[in-house]
Structures are given as structure tokens and as C-alpha cells.
Amino acid sequence: MILVIVGYLYPLLAGTGAIPLDRESWTDGYFFDVAKILGGVWLRWWLQGASALSNMSMFVTEMSSDSYQLLGMAERGMLPEFFSKRSCYGTPLMGILFSASGVLLLSWMSFQELLLCVLHHDTIMRELHAQGRTIAEIAETLKTAPLPANTIVAIRSTYALGL
């Protein structure tokens, strides 16, 4: 944790303390310009490469966890069986393809459009609360929804754990 804090704080302090502060210049990608000013072209390229590798690593990690989550849900009967198919290397093939297709579909949207989708979900919840619906009523509605028995058991055990 200390290493992460120092890894973010030290470059930020060095960048803001070593060059004159021009708030209009601090936009997306300006940190690379600061690296070029302070260390030259090689530091800029090194920082861009490290940033790209970091982002790719986080993406691969997220995709892997999503695909294994789909595999586990299929093995428990919460999703169709075809999600439980594995490649010859033991990786969840259908989960990877499903996650990748979701990413490809969302990649056409801008950040603002993705944010609007999230806000739309929040608006729906606010509307339910504005109509006077409580969490208990929403939970009661879920009791009448056609859910598989193992899904209900999973929800109850999660609730019992306090999660």
C-alpha cells in the first residue's frame, strides 16, 4: 500500500513542483508532457509504455475473473451449460468469448455514453423510491419472480453472511 501511494504521490509532487503551474495545461495526457520536460523523450516513452502495459494487465485480469465467474455460475446451474466449456488448456472458452464480445460492444460507446447508462440505472432506482417502493417491497417482488432454487439459496446465504 505504501509503495502504491508513493508511486502516485512522488511523480505528482515532482511534476507540480518542478515546472510552473499552468492549470489549463493539465488535461488528459499532460503527465507524459511533464515527463518529457523533466527527463527527456526517453522518460516520456518509458512512462507511456509502463502505462500501456499496466492498463493491458488490468484488462486481462478483469476479463479472466469475469470468464471464471461465468464458468462457476454455469457449473452451479445458474447459467446455461455451454458457459462451462473449457479449452484444451482448461480456460473457460465461452466465458472469454462472451466477455470479449461485451467489451467489443461497449467499446463503440464513449465514456459519456457509458456514464449515461449507469446514471439511467440510478434513475430507475430513484424512480422506484419516488413511487414509495421500499427495499422490502422489491424483495417481495423477487419472491414471485421465477428464479432457480440454487439462486435463491445463494441470495439467502449471501444475506446471512451480511454481504
Outline of the structure:
The protein is mostly helical and 163 residues long.
Name some characteristics of this structure.
mainly alpha, extended, RMV1-like
Q: Care to describe what's here?
A:
GO terms for molecular function: polyamine transmembrane transporter activity; symporter activity. This protein is an all-alpha fold and 163 residues long. It is built from seven helices and no strands. Helix 2 crosses helix 3. It is extended, with a radius of gyration of 23 Å. The model has no long low-confidence stretch (mean pLDDT 80).
N→C terminal distance: 25 Å
Which stretches are low in confidence, meaning pLDDT under 50 for 5 or more residues running?
A: none
Total helical segments: 7
Measured as a percent range, the helix fraction is over 70%
What letter string, H or E per element, gives the SSE order?
HHHHHHH
Rg, please? 23 Å
Strand content: under 5%
Quickly give the structural class: mainly alpha
Q: Mean pLDDT score, rounded? A: 80
Main sheet attributes: strand count, strand direction, barrel closure: none
Number of strands: 0
Report the principal-axis shape: extended
